[in-house]
Design goal:
By secondary structure, the chain is α/β, with parallel strands linked by helices. It is 48% helix and 14% strand. The strands form two sheets. Strands 4-3-8-7-5-6 form a six-stranded parallel sheet, sandwiched between helices. A two-stranded antiparallel ribbon has the order 1-2. The protein is globular and about 50 Å long.
């Protein structure tokens, strides 16, 4: 049964006002339920995409759990005096779900990353969370004509959880399109988490995370992201005048 949650609307995107602990409790409830649930982790970039794309707006608002990933979402909540409690980073929620899965012998499937990356991530996860049950994996460089093959591979593996790491908004669109055909308890869009687990991308040091500057660390490491980062001030200005 879906737990009652308070929601805050950021530019018409309804985001659940949950803590990291509450988000995990809800996710565990989904894994132990009998139907497929969807978790989305929007940041300011995808919220801005939703402003000009009705399909993205709709699918985000149809998510079973929509957590505030991105410090900009929390800043926006404070500006508008809304009820979002804290940032729930997708990668942190994924890690907490994986800990639970390892402990309870729940299996997971990873879809995404360059060829070989998902497999490497699964091996690293098994080392990090002893007892992890890998149902399977498939890279993210597939054509739309391969979707049926991927769905069969996932359903034949019968995972409890499917992590879709295709980047926003491709992963959200893919989840929205196929969640009714996938036989799992929880399906979640988790962006670049597969690269972090594989070790090909390093997450920011904890001090940057604690200060809400993880985005700044990524900009230092990947300066080519500068144009993408410009969405944050545009997002906050739009929130101010909304």
């Amino acid at each position: 049964m879906r737990q009652m949650k308070k929601k805050s609307k950021i530019l018409n995107v309804a985001i659940d006002a949950v803590t990291n602990k509450e988000a995990l409790e809800i996710a565990i409830g989904y894994i132990e339920s009998s139907s497929t649930k969807k978790i989305y982790t929007p940041n300011p970039e995808i919220v801005m995409m939703a402003q000009t794309n009705d399909s993205i707006m709709r699918l985000l608002n149809e998510g079973d759990l929509v957590v505030p990933d991105g410090i900009g979402i929390i800043v926006a909540s404070k500006i508008k005096k809304l009820e979002l409690k804290e940032r729930v980073a997708g990668v942190d929620l994924v890690d907490n779900i994986l800990k639970f899965c390892a402990k309870e012998k729940k299996s997971f499937f990873i879809l995404g990353g360059k060829p070989g990356i998902a497999e490497l991530a699964c091996e690293k996860i098994k080392e990090l969370h002893v007892g992890s049950v890998v149902a399977g994996y498939f890279h993210g460089y597939f054509k739309e004509t391969e979707d049926e093959k991927i769905l069969r591979k996932i359903n034949d593996a019968e995972p409890d959880v499917v992590f879709v790491c295709l980047g926003a908004p491709k992963q959200e669109i893919w989840i929205d399109k196929y969640h009714k055909e996938i036989h799992c308890k929880l399906i979640m869009g988790v962006g670049g988490s597969v690269d972090i687990y594989a070790g090909t991308v390093k997450r920011a040091p904890q001090i940057f995370i604690n200060l809400g500057l993880e985005w700044f660390y990524r900009l230092i490491k990947e300066p080519w992201r500068f144009k993408r980062m410009l969405v944050l001030p545009r997002f906050l200005i739009k929130v101010l005048f909304s």
